[in-house]
Write a structure and sequence with these properties.
Residues 14-112 form the AB hydrolase-1 domain. This protein is an alpha/beta fold and 256 residues long. The protein has eleven helices and seven strands. A seven-stranded mixed beta sheet has the order 1-3-2-4-5-6-7, sandwiched between helices.
Length: 256
Amino acid sequence: MKYEITGKPGAEAVVLSAGLGGAAAFWKPQMAALGEHFRVVAFDQRGTGRNAEPLPEGYTIAHMADDVVEVLDDAGIGRAHFIGHALGGLVGLELARRHPARLGRLVPVNAWAKVERHSERCFDIRIGILKSQGPAAYVAAQPLFLHTAPYMAEHDEKLDAEIAHGTAHFQGEENLLRRIGALRAFDARADLASITAPTLVVAAKDDLLVPWTASQKLADGLPDARLWLTETGGHAYTVEQPEPFNRAVLQFLLGG
């Protein structure tokens, strides 16, 4: 697995795990702020970006958590904090279940213990676009599920560039469907009470893709969790409004 480490040499490590797109670049708005205090470990998830390869049938969130351990082992990092967005948040929960000794503090962003039916409807729509119109249409529709309308209206050129890049570097239909299958199959509800890592569950109330109540259920089921909500910012709140998110996460990771 290819990865990069930036930030403060010798400091505690924090791993960043993106959502369904899998790209480390998703966390660009957080890199500098986190890097002032931590070694920041970022990587494209297996099957995407710089780690593009065909994923095997039956690929799961557990496999993704094992990929994180592989990165930590290769980097010589015994224990790290973890920030995961949506699917990436599930990877963090699985890491807490499978490898608790490797995990410090956990920050799942717009994540869930078990996917909501509403989210599955959204994935069905996106899969339908992919199968009927192809990758370019799928990528072009993606901002509708990630961002708020005001943000999209104010960032036409940025979104056009992201759509062009996403189309050119599309992870492939089979990989995408297997990654969606992995998040759909994930169910951590029975194990939440045994996850003892201090956790900050983050959600945006206007997230179109994942109801914020899924995060509330997640926080309620964890023994050492607090819920941090924002009124607006959409599914990609970390991109739309990075400053308040960065402040809240840094305060949490630094022990506040």
